[in-house]
Design a protein that fits this description.
single chain; alpha/beta; two-stranded antiparallel ribbon; TIM Barrel; 8-stranded parallel β-sheet; 12 strands; globular; 2 domains; AKR
Length: 357
C-alpha cells in the first residue's frame, strides 16, 4: 500500500475536514452472518488510521450494536483524532412503536445509548438514518439542535431523506439559526444514479457534502458477477434478493464498460467504479466497507487513479438514466442549449459562467 488517506477534504460548507474515503463499519461483527470478527475489525481500523484515515461511519442498528462497541474499542486512546459518525432512526424493536423513527423521544434515547456503546461523550457527525414519514421536520431539527448545544453532537447529516425534507430542514435552520445539514448519505454508484435528478442539485445549492454508501452496488461493480455466472461461490451475499435484483441487462452493460477500462488501465473493476464516484462534483468521501485488510488496501490504492475524459464519457454514456421529466423541467444549462442555439455552459448547478460556443 503506497497511497495514503491524509489528503483531507472539506465536508460541505462546514469547517470539518475528512479523508477522501470513509471507513464503513456495517461489517464489524458476526451477528448478521457475514461480517468480520472483532479481531479483524480492530485490525482494519488500525490499518485505516495508520494510512491517515480519520472518518469512520457506523450505526446503532449495525450488527445489533456490536459495530458501535467495536468502533469505540478501536478508537480508545485516539478518539479525538477521528471524525466519528453514527446513525439512528431504524426500529431496533418490533414491539415498541417508539424504538425507531426521528421523534424527540427516540433520538434522545438512541443517542445516549450509542454514546455509551462507543465509550465517548460526543459524536462528530450524527446521521438521521431515514425520514420516518411521521415526525415533523421541526421536531427532529429541534431535537438534534438541542444535542448540538449540549455538546453531544458536533454536526448533523441525513441519509435516505426525501429531497423536499432536506430543503425544508435547511430553510428552517436558516430562518431560526438552528443546526443545518452538512452531509448527505445516499446510495450512489454507476448503477444507482437517481439522486442526480433532484437531490444532487439540492446538495450543491445548500452546501451539503455527499458521503455515498454502496459505491460498488453491494459488490456488483467489483466484477465478480457475469452474465454467465450470477451466483459466484466466493461471496457470502451472492444469493441475496437485493443483490440478484441488481443484475439486469443494463448492469451488465455497465460492467462491460467498467471491465474494458479496467483492462486498458491495468486496474480492478472496483477501483474504476470507485474512482468514477469520487470524481463526481458533490462527492466528498465515499463509504467503503471491508472484511479484510487486503480489501481496504486495494480501495485506498485507488486514490492514485484518475479516469481519462474518454473513460468518463464511456461510463457516462452507458450508465446514464433516462430523463424523468419533459424537457421544460430540465436543469438550466440544458434549457440554455435548447433555447440559445447550442450555448456551451458550465454544468449546472456547480457553476454559472457561460461562454458562447
Amino acid at each position: 500500500m503506497t497511497t495514503r488517506l491524509d489528503t483531507y477534504r472539506q465536508l460541505g460548507e462546514s469547517g470539518l475536514f475528512v479523508s477522501p474515503l470513509c471507513l464503513g463499519a456495517m461489517s464489524f461483527g458476526e451477528e448478521w452472518g457475514w461480517g468480520a470478527t472483532e479481531a479483524d475489525s480492530l485490525a482494519i481500523v488500525d490499518r485505516y488510521v495508520d494510512a491517515g484515515g480519520n472518518f469512520i461511519d457506523t450505526a446503532d442498528i449495525y450488527t445489533q450494536g456490536t459495530s458501535e462497541r467495536i468502533v469505540g474499542k478501536a478508537l480508545s486512546g485516539r478518539r479525538d483524532k477521528v471524525v466519528l459518525a453514527t446513525k439512528a432512526a431504524l426500529n431496533v424493536s418490533t414491539r415498541d412503536p417508539n424504538a425507531g423513527g426521528t421523534s424527540r423521544k427516540h433520538l434522545t434515547q438512541a443517542l445516549d445509548r450509542s454514546l455509551r456503546r462507543m465509550g465517548t461523550d460526543y459524536v462528530d457527525l450524527y446521521w438521521l438514518h431515514v425520514h420516518d414519514g411521521v415526525t415533523p421536520v421541526h421536531e427532529t431539527l429541534r431535537t438534534v439542535d438541542d444535542a448540538v448545544r449540549a455538546g453531544k453532537i458536533r454536526y448533523v447529516g441525513v441519509s435516505n431523506y426525501p429531497v423536499r425534507k432536506v430543503v425544508e430542514w435547511q430553510m428552517l435552520a436558516r430562518q431560526h439559526g438552528l443546526t443545518p445539514i452538512v452531509a448527505a448519505q445516499y446510495e450512489y454508484n454507476l448503477l444507482t444514479r437517481g439522486i442526480e435528478v433532484e437531490h444532487v442539485p439540492a446538495f450543491a445549492e445548500f452546501g451539503i457534502g455527499q458521503v455515498p454508501w454502496g459505491p460498488l452496488a453491494q459488490g456488483v461493480l467489483s466484477g465478480k458477477y457475469t452474465r454467465e455466472n450470477r451466483r459466484p461461490s466466493d461471496t457470502k451475499r451472492a444469493d441475496g434478493e437485493l443483490t440478484q435484483g441488481r443484475l439486469t441487462d443494463r448492469a451488465f452493460d455497465v460492467l462491460d464498460a467498467v471491465g474494458a477500462i479496467a483492462r486498458e488501465t491495468g486496474e480492478s473493476y472496483a477501483r474504476v467504479a470507485l474512482t468514477w464516484l469520487r470524481e463526481q462534483p458533490t462527492v466528498v468521501s465515499p463509504i467503503v466497507g471491508c472484511r479484510t485488510q487486503a480489501q481496504l488496501d486495494d480501495l485506498i490504492d485507488s486514490l492514485g487513479l484518475s479516469l481519462s475524459p474518454d473513460a468518463r464519457a464511456k461510463l457516462e454514456a452507458v450508465s446514464r438514466l433516462e430523463a424523468p421529466y419533459p424537457f421544460w423541467s430540465w436543469p438550466a444549462d440544458q434549457m440554455d442549449k435548447k433555447m440559445r442555439g447550442g450555448l456551451t455552459t458550465v454544468p449546472w448547478p456547480y457553476g454559472s459562467n457561460r461562454t458562447s460556443a
